[in-house]
Amino acid sequence: MTLRAELNYSQGPANERPYIHTYERPPELAAASTRPLKTNLEQVPVEVTVHDGRVADPPCAMETHGFTLIQDAQTSLSRDEFYDGNKVRKVYYPEIEAMLCEQLGCGHARVLHHAVRNEELEPNRSDVKGYGLAVHTDANSNASQDLFRQFAPLLDTQYHTGRFLFLNVWRPIGDEPVSNNHLAMCDQRSLVSPDDFVVCDFCLPGTSVEVYRPPPTNASRHTWYCFPRMTRNEAILFKQWDSDPTQLARICYHTAFRDPKAASSAPVRESIEVRCICFFPDHEPNTCPPLPKDPDPIAAAATLVEQAVNMLSAWPAAAQTWIRVSLWLGPWGVRSVARILAQDGQGRFGFAKLTPSEKGLLADRLVERGLAHKLQKGLPPINPWPTLKMVMAIFLGAVPAYWWGHATAPA
Q1: CB 3.0–4.6 Å: which of 75, 107, 137, 345 could bond 212 by disulfide?
Q2: InterPro entries, from UniProt (predicted)?
Q3: Which H helix or E strand runs over 49?
């Protein structure tokens, strides 16, 4: 399947660095900012040829193209289970880490976080996203090296040197093969340097991440691929950043796109992507950025928690309600949140090496570093209806329980 389709490139102003705000700011704050707009980028649709990666010769490979298809990427999760964040973290994360070690030969792999995408469910669920319909990367060299510096101190020293790879694993989760809104990847060898590597600030509450958003200037030279009719037991690996400068491909531009030939009755695309970091300690020469001589694991752990808090708008509604209630309770509530995050009961942050006393210190550090302000800033504008429904459910459940307890109490 080779098809013509429109991909959205990004055109920014000539005299200003590109930026995107991922969250809604109060109008008065936006107006007072040096970056008052939600974004200063304009999407430019360009018609390109998208090749069938299944019949590519030679096959699409991580080392040369920046991406590859794993055709036997078995998972034990069903469609519905992928919408359960706890199940994904407990079951799917270990599956992906084991697959990466097997497929790439890395010494250690760690899933950082995930995103489930379904454009029909996105309006009603904070933990489900729409499709990324613009050509982009999720990081650049600076952002990826910052990630390494934040995460590596939590691991054994053997993983502090060698090579690291920041990558995504993308998988459909629906019961039907994907027939629209495919994921397209660009062969890095077709990119033009430095024109195609335009840095954009991806602004989150309290922080920003450097990503790439290419202009349409060289779009006609780019070679694009997709893997049609993917199923749940297939997965695409694609690079965000590879520390090894000898690799032909070190990044991978990607985007979702509408298939002009897709039937109007085509099922909605349902997918999950996980961002991961892989460590190759035996790689020579060392291509990892230097760490401090005495790295502080508590500071590194605090940074990882704060990154998750920056994405608070994507947390489930129940978790956001818990945060709002905790903030309402004041310092005691904030400290309670800090303790729970530091415990890392679900293994979300990889704090297995931290002792109970170190986790206590981590909770203190989070509070000292302004956790209350970061939580407040990370929360999205309140939608009162889910909270009202929860309060009503509690009230309607508590009143009958109270009545029943008194009505049946012995005289």
Answers
A1: 137
A2: AsaB-like
A3: strand 42-52
